[in-house]
Amino acid sequence: MQESMYRYMRVGILHFMAYPEVLKEEGSYLETLQKIAEDDFFTAVEVCEVKDDRVKEKVKKLLKTAHLSVAYCAHPKILTRSLDLNSFSQKERKKAVDQIKIAVDEAYEIGAEELIFLSGKDPGEERRDDARRLLTFSIKDICAYAKSRGDLRITLEIFDREVEKRCLIGPADEARMVAEEVRREFDNFGLLVDLSHIPLLNETPAEAILPVKDYLVHAHLGNCVLKDAQHPAYGDSHPRFGIEGGENDVEEVVKFLEVLFEVGFLNEDNPPMVSFEIKPLADESAQVVIANAKRVLREAWVRLNI
Known about the structure:
Elements: E1 10-13, H1 15-18, H2 29-37, E2 44-47, H3 53-66, E3 69-73, H4 75-80, H5 90-110, E4 114-118, H6 128-149, E5 153-157, H7 172-183, E6 189-194, H8 205-209, E7 216-221, H9 250-262, E8 273-276, H10 286-303
Parallel strand pairs: 1-8, 2-3, 3-4, 4-5, 5-6, 6-7, 7-8
Helix pairs in contact: 2-3, 5-6, 6-7, 9-10
């Protein structure tokens, strides 16, 4: 592909995955976000909650100054609080919805255009339909709240069902069912497909993307380790591309991008966010892992034959 990738997508990165220390020590939040803001390879960034109001104001100013597109990722809020939007307990479900509504407020506050979240645990085949119905109710409630405040998009990320997160959503066909139902009432909802979750779901890029193409609004680029349960990055750990025992490298990124082009997701009229979700191992440098990802994307892009 000879044309610039920036004609077809806004290249982003998940701040709190590239710099996981921010989830433990908020003091590093601004310093590490500054590194992304200074790197003009990125035109978008995905951030998580900022608990300190003083830090939040500085984050808001930095993001605006950097001219970055911003998405708010609610995954840390959900996972650290064990929130479940499809819980069979009405109390637990309401607690989850209320927390995501707080996240909606936070997203608006920092100038984000999108809020990303994940579904709750898969209850098993016998109760799966009921759980999906409850998830749909929760999403509609959140979409209505977001719409009452502005134009924030609400995006459900598709996760694995059997390996680590064991989420209800889940396989592409079932993600489509949820999206179809929510979109009947709310146009501010969409789906996110993550390259790193595709092997965990035992899907190909085509199997993961084609069923949800009409609802796809965001994509992640990442890697996973599936075959070796003893590997330090086994499961949904988002290690660097090309790691020994991993599933994704340049070739897989090429195939993923090809399908995204095929369905019209990558486009010139409204370039979507496509973000790296990568995490350094304990003995790895975040900057080197980020450089790895940028090299992989550049190489994959020039290999594209569109």
